[in-house]
Amino acid sequence: MSSNDLLLGFDAREMRLDVAEYWPEERKRSYLLRRDIVKPLSTDTSVWRSVFDVNQTLQRPPWIGPTGELWENLQALENYLSTAWSNRREPYWLIAITLAADIPGDEERAYWNVRRGEITPPVCDPSWHLLGYDVADSSLLSGLTNLGYGNDEVQGIGGKYIPYLNEYHLFQSVESAAEFIHRAEEMAPPHAPFLVFGLWLIKMEDGQIPPD
C-alpha cells in the first residue's frame, strides 16, 4: 500500500451466507464478469454484507463515523461486537477500506480527507492482508459488481478485465482497477466520479464463542 493511501474506516463483513443461495447463477450472469469465484467481496454492502445488516440482533450505535457505515475506530468496533454479540457469533471478517492515493484528483482527495473523520488507527498495519481493489462511487456503491452487465457487454469487455480479477472478483492491482474507472463511469454517469478502493483483511473470526 502507498504511504499516501487514505484509510477510510472499518467494518465487520459476513462470511456465513451460502454463496450459491445469495449469488445464484442469474445474479452472477447479471453482475459479475468472472463467475468461477470463491465469493464476491466489495466495498458495497449490498454485494458483501455487513454483519449489522445480516444479523438483526446487532444494531449499529447512533454514531460510528462520518460515513455512516464505516467505523472510524477499529477498537470501538471490536469492543462493540464482543459485548453486543457475546452470546452468539457467526463467521465474519474484520476489514479496513482505503482510498488509493494515486487515483483521485485534488478535489476528491480533499473531500475524503474531510469525510473520513478521526480514523483510529490512522494507517494500515503491515500485518493486514490485501484482499484486492474495488471501483466504487462516493457512497461505496461498486461499479464492478453492482451496476449490471448485458451478455454482449460481458463478452466484449470480459477478456480485457477478467485476467486481472482475483477469486473474490476484486482487481489484483491499483493499475488494473484504475483502467476500469472509465467503464464504470460510462455505465453509470450519475455516480461519477468512480475511484479505486482497497479492501484489507484485519482478522478472521470463526464464530466460536470464547469459553467462560
Jot down its keywords.
single chain, 212 residues, alpha+beta, four-stranded antiparallel sheet
Textual characterization of the structure:
- By secondary structure, this protein is an alpha+beta fold.
- It has one domain.
- Helix content is 29%, strand content 17%.
- A four-stranded antiparallel sheet has the order 1-2-4-3.
- The mean pLDDT is 89.
Task: Provide a short characterization of the protein structure.
By secondary structure, the protein is of the alpha+beta class. The protein has one domain.
Structural class: alpha+beta
What topology, given as strand order, has the largest sheet? Answer: 1-2-4-3
For the secondary structure, the number of strands is 4
- Note the total helix count: 7
> Rg to the nearest angstrom?
17 Å
Please give the share of residues in helix. 25-40%
- In total, how many domains does the architecture comprise? 1
Low-confidence stretches: none
Q: Cα distance, first to last residue?
A: 39 Å
Beta-strand content estimate: 15-25%
Order of helices and strands: EHHHHEHEHHE
Instruction: Please identify the oligomeric state.
Output: single chain
Mean pLDDT: 89
Described by the principal axes of the CA atoms, the overall outline is: globular
Largest beta-sheet characterization: 4 strands, antiparallel
